[in-house]
Amino acid sequence: MRIRKIRSEDAASAVRLARKLNLDYPGMDSDELWVAEEAGESIGVVALKKHPDCLELCALGVDPDFRGQGVAGSLVEALMAGAPGDVHLATIIPAYFEIRGFVRARDVPGTFPAKRRTAWCEGCPREGCTVMLRKKT
User: Fold this and answer.
1) Which of 20, 25, 35, 90 is 20 to 30 A from 119 in CA distance terms?
2) 53-98: per-residue pLDDT in tens?
3) Dihedral sign, CA of 114, 24, 96, 55?
4) With bands split at pLDDT 50, 70 and 90, how would you rate the model's confidence at 45?
5) How many angstroms separate the CA atoms of 119 and 40, rounded?
6) Of 92, 61, 52, residue with least CA distance to 79
7) What is the distance between the alpha carbons of residues 73 and 61, in angstroms, rounded to a whole number?
């Protein structure tokens, strides 16, 4: 497996995988994208979205045929290694991210309440949504 940061000219392949996994969002192709590849095929994706008030890890997903093999964790670590600062995320599976160094955020970035009113968050149970933070080390 190879993990790499997507170049702008091949962002479409990462967005296609995100769309297949129902993780795509408007403007995704202009965000910083990382992809996991196996035999030249994209098998996992994650995005780093730059907001005015924070960085956000979003759209983490792995092709069902490759789940359970550490692909998502490797994508998170690659993104964190390349991130220029602390990274927030909103999730309904906080335990997954806690073992990857994220903690529940004391303060919610101003961007996040507005984000939760978008179509992208409509399918998630809002009462279960946790905002988390991982400090850049």
Assistant:
1) 35
2) 999 999 999 999 999 999 999 999 999 999 999 999 999 899 999 9
3) negative
4) very high
5) 32
6) 61
7) 10
Residues contacting residue 116 through CB under 8 Å, at least 6 positions apart: 90, 126, 129
Q: What's the chain's length in residues?
A: 137
* pTM reported for the whole predicted model: 0.90
Q: How many domains does the chain have?
A: 1
Q: Are 109 and 88 in contact (CB under 8 A)?
A: yes
* pLDDT tens digits along 17-40: 999 999 998 889 899 999 999 998
Query: What CATH number does residue 24 fall under?
Result: 3.40.630.30
- Which residues are registered as beta bridge partners of 45? 35, 61
Residue ranges in 47-116 assigned as alpha helix (H): 71-82, 94-98, 111-115
